[in-house]
Amino acid sequence: MEKFFKLKERGTTVSREIIGGITTFLAMSYILAVNPGMLGEVGNGMNFGNVFTATAIASAIATLVMAFCANLPVALAPGMGLNAFFTYTVVFGMGCSWQLALTAVLLEGILFIILSMVGVREAIIKSIPANLRKAVAVGIGLFIALIGFTNAGITSSATGTIIGFVNFNEKTALVAIIGLIITIVLYLLKVPGAILLGIVATTIIGIPFGVTTIPEGFSPVSLPAAPLFFQFEWSSVLTLKFFGIFFTFLFVDMFDTIGTLVGVAEQAKLTDKKGNIPQVKGALLADAVGTVAGACLGTSTVTSFVESSSGVAAGARTGLSSVVTGLLFLVALFLSPLFALVPSAATAPALIFVGYLMMQSVGQIDFADGSEGIPAAVTIMVMPFSYSIANGISWGIISYVICKLAAKKAKDISVVTWILAAIFVLKIVFDAL
To answer: Between helices 120-127 and 415-432, what is the axis angle to 10°?
Structure first.
């Protein structure tokens, strides 16, 4: 285990990796309820049970590939946002069948495997300037903190402003605040596994508040439903509508994954002196394999999860934590009622606290140089404000090119960065039409 995962080299232990893996799983376990609930709305043969099974198995496969091919503490599952696009835009909005949507996901995953094997996605990651990489970590920190605040019901647009704090007579918000205080105190007292203990404590505290609900006749064990094997539709693949669906899945998945890998690797201090991520090709392959497996089982695009940063904050530094997370997804197949007890109010404090940890990279960004600082600031601001990691990277790259040209430093712009900026501009124009 030591030889394969290089525990001593990365300054970690088996116990830390186990705690980190469990923490990551608990922080992202909401996907086991949210994804089946969202895709299950589609109906016509797609329901909560079979999507739950597909979600758990696809997440386990992708996360285990990440562990053994990349040795990184990054977990994967069907991505939020992509599942919403699948359900509300492709199926409900465009009137497509869910089988056609799964076909787009499958082909996107196959293309990603090819791009990962030939090094295209790796080249894209290496093309992101050093200051922008640090900004990606900070932006993700703000983004997941916002997710935490929103999941807990602490922030809401129903306050009369664009976004605001609710009155804390809301039980979910109150329990989340208590959980956040517990997490902070445990962390400052240097208690091992502070984030994980915070999640468990908040879940228990939520019982008397009615936030953690235990149903009548509760049994923690249940048999999984069968997934939707190979449900594809090929008749409309060569249409313009299909290309639009395919390209959207492709774009969002690629840059969400790149942003997450960069952010988590920066937080874990796993990058080399040039900011490169170790074994990044294996990490990108895990994402692509997970997407193909998910499509074959009946779920939307699988991608790297920013909640992996909660496991890193708990001490995870290697793929051993990903092994733990992947195995827990398999266990969840049979213990879904037990994992469903953990409310969003219990995982929200972990996300908010990790936001603080990821923001520490902001001090390493060179804001004195406007051609570096302005694009970094744009990246940081766009991620939470647009609710998209991919948008943050897009606008960060575009502003980087503009600022370097304005500062007469065009030589700092790499060929790949030029190409990315052009692609991002074209996509903005395409979306506006």
So the answer is: 100
Could you give the CA distance from residue 13 to residue 318 in angstroms, rounded to a whole number?
A: 10
* 66-103 residue pLDDT tens: 999 999 999 999 987 678 778 887 888 888 899 999 99
Phi-psi group of 8: left, alpha or beta (phi > 0 → left; psi -120 to 50 → alpha; rest → beta): alpha
Choose among 238, 245, 225, 227: nearest CA to 87. Answer: 245
Q: What tokens does 357 get?
A: 């940890």
List the beta strands (DSSP E) in 214-357: 302-304
pLDDT tens-digit series, residues 146-176: 888 988 889 888 777 888 888 777 899 999 9
Is residue 252 a contact partner of residue 62, using CB atoms and an 8 Å limit?
Answer: no
Low-confidence winner among 12-26, 130-144, 201-215, 369-383 (lowest mean pLDDT): 130-144
Which residues are within 8 A (CB) of 79 and not within 5 positions of it... i.e. 6 or more apart? 252, 253, 256, 300, 301, 302, 303, 305
CB 139 within 8 A of CB 392: yes
Strand partners, 207: none
What's the pTM? 0.75
> pLDDT at position 354, please?
80
Distance between CA atoms of residues 223 and 207, nearest Å: 26
Calpha distance 382→374 (Å, rounded):
12
